[in-house]
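hey so i finaly got around to running the thing on DUF2730 family protein from Hoeflea phototrophica. pasting the sequence first so u can double check i didnt mess up the copy paste, my clipboard has been acting weird all day
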Amino acid sequence: MVNELKEWLGLAALAISVGGFIYAWITSRSKVNAEHLKSVDATLANHALRIQAIEGELKHLPAKDDVNDLKLALAELRGTVGRLDESLNGISRTVRRVEDFLMKEGS
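ok and heres what it spat out for the 3d tokens, dont ask me to read them lol
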């Protein structure tokens, strides 16, 4: 009876030590994973702040339609400036002719 009890106690001690080893192995892995998750959370929080900053800056930029409207307005402005340039060239030629006339007749 004592021998049987010793055998059972030996098996129970073996089971407890194996269980303790498995528990220690699992908890050590979870500690490593917990530390890794903390670093991932910190990185994620940093990225969230950076994304918020970028979104804040993007709100100030013009939309696609606004840029298209600006392009059209610039094209219209180019046409107007071209017409003004032609008008100014004509006026410049007229002023030169008047000046030449006055220079010749005034002498």
